[in-house]
Amino acid sequence: NVVTPVEEKINVAMIIDGIRYEAAIKSGSTAYDLMSLLKTENRTNFSGKNYSDLGFFVEEINGAKNNPSGKNWLYYVNGQPAPVGVSNYKLNNNDVLEWKYENKSF
Q1: Can you tell me the mean pLDDT for 6-29?
Q2: Are 35 and 65 in contact (CB under 8 A)?
Q3: Which residue of 6, 22, 25, 49 has the smallest Cβ count within 10 Å?
């Protein structure tokens, strides 16, 4: 008898522009993995660029692009500004990630 280990999943949510997406994802996944999962399921769309020193940087979500002199996509974890980029943030069970399109200059 071969026993396949059950992949441990955690429950997380992502809010984009006020729309909440619930997901169960493999333990140890990053915020980027969650976005990729939602994209694969055709629930949302995004694009961006990978920077070797910073990781993945989101440049556009659902057709709304970052504007250096105007609004940009910023993400929050459980109501707080994200501590690290999306490819470096490891998800915890019941995390709520929220993307907000805000006027913010860098």
Answers
A1: 94
A2: no
A3: 6
